[in-house]
Amino acid sequence: MMSSDYSVSELQEKVLWSCIARNDVILVEAGEDNFDGAVTATAQGILQKKGTAGWEYYKPSRSPFRKNQLKGVKFHFHESAKIIWVFAAVYNPQYVQLVEVQSFIEKIMGITEMYRDEDPTWRTGPKLACQPTFAPILIQRMEEVTYLGKMAMISQQLDTSKQIMQDNITRILENEEKIDDLAERGTRLEQMASDFKKRTKGVRRKMMIQNAKHGALVGGAITAGVAVVVVPPLVALL
């Protein structure tokens, strides 16, 4: 296990290890164990699962001393009663979903179909017989899982940023509308104040005129009264 010379340390967050086997013979594998033996243990656990047709899953028993809880998955393809093809992988569920790992395995199955059908090295070769030729391809496909995952994350972040920008623009437009409304209200208030001032001046002027007329009448009456008091009547004494 873990005999590949190809470094995939950058894949720790996605597919950590994968292999293709014919029955119990591992023809090619890729991966590194930077998890204190957890990758190797999980790989061994998934390979020991019964070779029933279809998907098999493996989850190590949880340990309080194990920081990273890895998982294993594999697919068995029964070509015949004598040949069972095994496609297995170990992954970190904290950073990649099972469906992504299954998609990775399905792609590997499609890529190797021609080799498995026609290439003698694949059909009868010994342990790691396909390592020199196919390990780089296996690593490349493992990298794609990481790359696509990062692209999906970046795309999600861009969508979130885009939504935030749209929300900000909407708020700005709403604020501009509110400012326009306030400006319009201010203009109306100024006009109302001006009209009120004009009406006030008119009312004040009218009141002044009325007061002036009233003052003239009152003044005349007082003058007449004063005349009666001060000036002796000329007719009454006649």
Automatic annotation (TrEMBL):
Residue spans crossing the bilayer: 214-235
Stored Pfam families: Synaptobrevin
KW Nucleotidyltransferase (keyword) present: no
Assigned keywords, A-Z: Coiled coil, Membrane, Protein transport, Transmembrane, Transmembrane helix, Transport
Record-annotated V-SNARE coiled-coil homology domain positions: 150-210
Superkingdom to which the source organism belongs: Eukaryota
One GO cellular component, as annotated: membrane
Descriptive protein name: V-SNARE coiled-coil homology domain-containing protein
Organism of provenance: Amphora coffeiformis
